[in-house]
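Running this now, will post back.
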Amino acid sequence: MDSGPWLSRALRGNLSPETCILRDVHLPNTANPPPVLVIGAGVGGLALAARLAHRGLPVQVLEKEPQVGGKMRVIPVAPGVSVDGGPTVLTMRWVFDELFRELGDELDRHVTLAPLDVLARHSWPDGVVFDLFRDRDRSAQAISEVFGAREGEAYRRFSRYCEGILATVREPFLRRPLPRLADMMSLEALRQARALAGIDATRTMWDAVRSFFREPRLQMLFGRYATYVGSSPLEAPATLNVIAAVEQAGAWVVRGGMKELAKALRELAERQGAEIRTGVQVTRIMTEQGRACGVKLCSGEELRASAVVTNGDVAHLRTLLGPLGSKAPRPGVRSLSAFVMTGLYEVTGFPLDHHNVFFSRDYPQEFSDLFEQRRMPSEPTLYVCAQDRGPYGGVPAGPERLLILSNAPAIGDEPGAFPEHEVTAWESKILELLSKQGLRLTPRGHVTTTPTGFEQLFPATGGALYGPASHGMLSAFARPSCRTSIPGLYAVGGSAHPGAGVPMVALSARIAEQRLLSDLGATLSYRTGATPGGTSTASATVGASV
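Update: finished.
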């Protein structure tokens, strides 16, 4: 039978250098295949829907919330006022430039981006305040002035070390399917042992950072990057120091907030032919002869599918698959959740920048509380995003929009977690801790989200926001692959390879596209070398955690 638009559109492509090229595609022998069903309209689900629809596949995205974007959500806090309640900046923007370009479009046509000059303003209880800049020389000079010349030079060495990790992992890990541990132990891999040693996987981030910096405050500052993937610097492999390198390459603020990026991704997918349905909840993934064949909605409606993709946490598959749930990936140690206050506040005292971090006195104790004791830290480090400050604004004349975040344990599915009186007490304590470092806030309307609230938004996670924690040298290999053990069922998002964060999730969509097309019957042949579509440059990761 005629394969209709599948073949001609699947052959269309404009992939950039160092990207697998899809050629010689022979798609399933049917003119009207059922659609690929994508559960969840987060960044991964939208990016994958756009890619597959561009190839000519029918795609339908099913989102239970009224808005798209997943964790990139918007929270109304007062009449006519909303605050970004998730990621607050875009990093690794090359991932999205590449996505739009490959689909015949340009990111800059749909969103306006401006880089942050100050990556973050950091404060400690003893009164020290320090800005880390996008410009490395400026950061090194600032470190020298505040912490001494030795630490300034240590920062330069640390930056080179982090860039070396990025150069090693970018192509074989970030842009390709999850490598098997056996492959890493092959003879060829052993020949590359010298290069692989550069990823520094055998010691922790904390040990690595302390080997560069003697200053405890700088150890806290650079150890904090582990929280960008919901992990502890005392347990995460030093490989994750790569995050410092990619953030140094740039962080961009989206005019109008991150909802504009979610909107642009939705429109990109719809222009390619994907259908986006909001307000519909999937209650079961249907299977036939052990293969995913469709979904059942809470309304009772059943939808057939040529393949099913989950953009939720893979831990939820154990519920969605029913009798086959035991075949779903077993979740590891949960990553961090968060206690988040979003609202309008009168601000006095501390001179906020766009990103601000207020450290506690005892950083290691925080992570002991979070992961070992599974409780809120007695004195948490706090992240404050002043969303009206930065490249698109100055110091607001009246109340301003803030996101205030404390890391929290992922216990949102435990009975009695975060009762109302505790929530109120923690809100007061957080404002008190900020006041002690000079930032005095008066609420004029706010909404608080606890791990219990995040569990309701993202079921089966306990409120964990980053999938499994990245603890231990082999944690990367334990993260679920985009291809599950159930034929016809795939995963994209922060709980799957290559990991958490907005750009990483978009990269998971690229990898899932290749796997899904191959499994649907496409014959893939690859060639290397420069091809039309622009160039790729390393950039940064995203993080609103502390």
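The chain is about 30% helix and 20% strand. More later if anyone needs it.
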